[in-house]
Amino acid sequence: MKKVDLGHAKIAVHLAGDKGPILALAHGFPLDHSMWKYQIEYFSTRTRVVAFDLRGFGQSTGGSENCTMADYADDCAAALTALGFEKPVVFCGLSMGGYVAWQFWKRHRQMLAGLILCDTRAAADTEEVARGRRRMAFDVLARGSHFVADAMLPRLMAPQTFEQFPDRVEMLRRVMAETSPEAISTAQRAMASRIDVTRWLPQIDIPTLAICGVEDEISRVDEMETFTEQMPMANLSVISSAGHMAPLENPAAVNEAIEKFLETLVD
Ligand code: MLT
Questions:
Q1: Whole-structure pTM value
Q2: Average pLDDT of 210-215?
């Protein structure tokens, strides 16, 4: 992992591959770059992969102060610049990483060749959901990250993933349990106060691929279909045998969708 010192945080970045388009990967909550294991393996022979640990997560530092989805996006932009990436990137975010991707588009669109939005939402939280996040943000500091792993894991993947790939389930549990309680608390508060970006959708006129696990309970297919239809250059790919963690649950299908999308970008 390379560490980029931004002053307020050191951002850890996994770099792989040396040719082709630049695929920048932003993980979901409360995870790190390792959730992209199968995309990093597959795309490192075809693209340049830049997989971030967002501020406070994985091997990155920072993240104990208040921050916003825009701050995570700015960190990614600053890290790409510091690493010398000059060409526009394809920014791919899962769930919380998708909330970061909206902000990346808003704030750094000159750095974008395309967007990939995996298992994510455009709408803000309901008041009830936001309250639940703020409760977790408080509780995790007292109870530790194991409690978050236990609470979240059952909803993250499709039932058959738990049966067929217990190693992947354990990997996620381990990453969540090892994530710092402060980073979890900060991110939950940041997600609770994130804005509804639905009104941006008609303006997002760059090539966009949306990806959704057919059994995703958190970012549902019908909701992703609705927001994709409002984006002028977006298509939705629904992934079989997968829930919220589609890239980890059915990597072959996700990689195929991403590869086809990247081919359409080649000029
Ligand atoms: C994620 O996977 O990043 C989370 O489910 C996002 C969220 O809690 O909204």
A1: 0.97
A2: 98
